Amino acid sequence: MKTPNVVFNGVGSFVPENVVPNEHFLQHEFYMEDGTPFEVSNEEIIQKFEKITGIKERRYADKDQLNSDLGFIAAENALKNSTIDKEDLDYIIYAHNFGDIEYGTNRVDNMPSLAAKVKHKLNIKNPDVVCYDIIFGCPGWVQGVIQAYQMIRSGFCRNIMVIGAETLSRCVDPHDRDGMIFSDGAGATIVSASYDDDRKGILGFANRTDAAEELNYLAMGKSNKPGLEEEARFIKMKGRKIYEYALDEVAAAMQIALKRSGIFLENIQKVLIHQANAKMDEAILRKLGQLYDLRLEAKEMMPMTIQKFGNNSVATVPVMLDLMLKGELEGHKVKSGDDIILASVGAGMHINAIIYRM
C-alpha cells in the first residue's frame, strides 16, 4: 500500500473578542518573587514589559466560556474548511494544560477529557471517533500534529482533528508581572491522508524533552503576594532561564527537522514559532540563520501575533496558521509548494518543530 502524504485538510481558530490592553494592569499590586513590593511604578513595570515582550494587548475569554467552548468553535471552523464529514474522523486530540477552569476559580477540570467534550458538542455519533487529551506545555498542538502524522503514516488512520486551546488568564497570579504575558485562544486542524503523487504536507519533524534542571523553568507556585490564597497555585516562570534555553535549543530542533525532511533553509518561506516573547523569537530566528551562515529577516519570514494576542499557549501556532491562510496576517502569505516551519517551546521543557509543504 502506498504511504500517504499527511496534510492539513482544514484549519480553524477562535480568538476571544475581549481585548485587554496593558493599561488594564495599572491598578494591580505587583510583588517580586520574594514577596516584596516593587519600588517602581506600575507605569514603569508595564513600559519595560512591553519593550521586552512586544505585547501591547491580549485577549481573554468571556466569563461564561470554558476552554472546551473555545476549542469547539475552532473545531467547527476547521471542519467547515475541510473536505471531510465529522463522522469520518478517527481521533480527536486536544492539547491544553489546565482543562476547563470556571471564571473566578482556580480549579482545574479535566474529566471528562476536553476532546470528549468537543466530540459531544459537535454531536458526533460514531463511536470509532476516539478522543484523548495531551498535556505537553505550549508545544502541545505541534506535538498533537506529530502524533497524528505518525498514526496516519502507519496506515491505520485517515483523518485526525488536532485542537490546541487554553484559558491561561484564569491561572495567572494577578500579583506577578509575568501574568501579563498570558492569554486565551483556540486553534484546530484536520490532519488527513493524501495520496497525491507530489510530495507535500509534513516532510519531517523533531522533538525533545529536557527535564533535568530545566524541569521547573515553568511550573505552578504560590502567589507572589505573601499570605494570599495560600492553597492556590499559579503559573510561575523563570524568564531568563527560558530565554537562554530556547535560544540554544529551538534553532537546533528546527535544524534537525530540516535535515530529516531534506529541505534547505534557503527554501523556507515562513517560520511560525510559538509567540512567547517577540525579542526571543527574533533571536531564535537569527540563531537558526547562523547555523547555516545565512541572514534571516524576521519581518519577512516570521509572522507575529503576540503584540495583539499575547501568549495563548497551545493555540498560538494554529491561530497564526489559520490567519495566514485566510490572508489576515499583513505581509505574510503562502502559496502551494511553499515550505514553512512550525515550531514551539514550553513547559516540560519541551521543544518541537515541523517542516510543512503547502
Automatic annotation (TrEMBL):
| Gene Ontology MF term list | 3-oxoacyl-[acyl-carrier-protein] synthase activity
**SUPFAM superfamilies in UniProt:** Thiolase-like (SSF53901)
GO biological process entries: fatty acid biosynthetic process; secondary metabolite biosynthetic process
What Gene3D superfamilies does this protein's entry cite? 3.40.47.10
Q: Where is the Beta-ketoacyl-[acyl-carrier-protein] synthase III N-terminal domain?
A: 132-210
- What are the protein's UniProt keywords? Acyltransferase, Transferase
Give the Pfam families listed for this entry.
ACP_syn_III (PF08545), ACP_syn_III_C (PF08541)
Coiled-coil intervals, chain numbering: none
Q: Specify the signal sequence span.
A: none
Query: Domain Beta-ketoacyl-[acyl-carrier-protein] synthase III C-terminal: where?
Result: 258-357
InterPro entries to which the protein is assigned, alphabetical: ACP_syn_III_C (IPR013747), ACP_syn_III_N (IPR013751), Thiolase-like (IPR016039)
Protein name as annotated: Ketoacyl-ACP synthase III
